[in-house]
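SAMPLE LOG
Freezer: B-3
Tube label: C17
Construct: single chain, 292 aa
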Amino acid sequence: MELRQLKTILAIADHGSFAAAADAVNLTQSAISLQIKNLEDELGIELFDRRHRPPVLNEKGALLVEHARTVVKTCEQILRLSGGSQLQGSLVLGAVPTSLAGIVPIALAAMRKRHPALHIQVISGLSVELAGQLRHGELDAALVSEPARLSEALLSRAIVREPLVVIAPPEIDGTQDRDILEAAPFIQFNKRAWTGQQIHQHLLDRKIRVEPRMEIDSLEAIAEMVRHGLGVSIIPMSSRAPAFASGLKWVPFGDPPLFRNLIIIQRHANPKAQLAEALIDILHREAAKQTA
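STRUCTURE (predicted):
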């Protein structure tokens, strides 16, 4: 039994449903359901009456919630008494390249200030590669683009939502994404990346005819190619993107406009869960500042 599972069932009890609890703790509803299922399997009992929609705590579930409140409160008190606010150790974090030009360096600087004895190693890669490394135990956590489907072996937490935009040289005519994309060569965001796949699928769905010339996974490199008149592209617009996209024309992509979700993923029973949770807390705070 893990402390996070107890916190999850408390969130369900406090917020009234799996969906509301998921929003409260920044987990997907499927991740909440999986945590509860694993807890029930471990205890060998059912904690919810699933004949109701949404499911409600049964008698054993209500009793567990009562004890869980005591356990969670005690653990928090122990951490405060032991100076648990200062974390130590090491964490290997995977991160997609686009996040390294955005939220990651800001969050890491805040982590170093708050937890100077904590060492974080960063490994850059595409989302699909990082997810594989995480499953094989080579990473402790990874900040990736949200896929259409995530392996059940992994837990995910939402971090930040970024709009996808079409960028073009200012001399390109048009105010709609289709007009701009069909007016010049297309610089494709790497189709092996989950965001690249999202973009590619939407182009196909809307039958937008693009003329691919390059395939790149660096936002800065894409912006420079566009700035020099070599084509148009579609990128996630983070809060820092306007700095390197300055002077370029940009419009929302999608009908309705599409977004790229950055999530942090980790394994179930992650031995570095406490360190990962501290990083997630910092990422949420920095993401909130950027979107405020």
